[in-house]
Amino acid sequence: MAEQAGKNEEVLKVFRKEKIITNKRLTQLLDASNRTAQRRLRQWHTYTSYNQNGRYYVLPDIPKFDHNGLWKYKGVFFSKYGNLCQTITALVNNSPDGRTVSETSALVSVSLSSFMTEGRKALPLRRDKVAGRFVYFSPDETIYNGQKRKRHKHDTSCKLTELPSDAEAVIILVERIKRPKLNIENLCKRLNRKGHRIECKTVQDLFEYHGLQKKTPDSKQ
Asked: What's the predicted TM-score (pTM) here?
């Protein structure tokens, strides 16, 4: 018993040093079966990554979650709300005016075009069209009414005609996620080479709309 406790402490020490860990790595450290590793992960109340096919785990006291409840480390993303479906649901419910696919994708740094459109039945959310765009809202009637009212007010005050379509927005955001250090000009060049005729002004408007515009010059990548 004491030997096992000592082994667990050694493994936890390595786990904390590496910050995130896969199940395969944990089985190696424990020198135990996959089932034992899974049991330890549950006992330690670890978070599971919502990208990378949920392959990574982190101890509950390691992440420094931002105001959206998200934490990103070396390209691996975690949410205090749980998996991707639970995270999207929480982000929409907590939003003052609902969220579009591109807005949610920008937050979680994952392309959600297929997930939220084709698999929307798995999301306990409402979806309405506002100013020509699909927006996801809370299913709670009171919250929904407040969100939709604010969305209408927000969208009518913005120059939405200068923003790309949701499909184009996701394409732009995916490229940004892949190459976060690329400046707008070079990002547009990459998009154009891939056959996407999107103006730099459109990309700039999208980034400003989502609060993604950087204040310092980007470097080429």
From this structure: 0.75
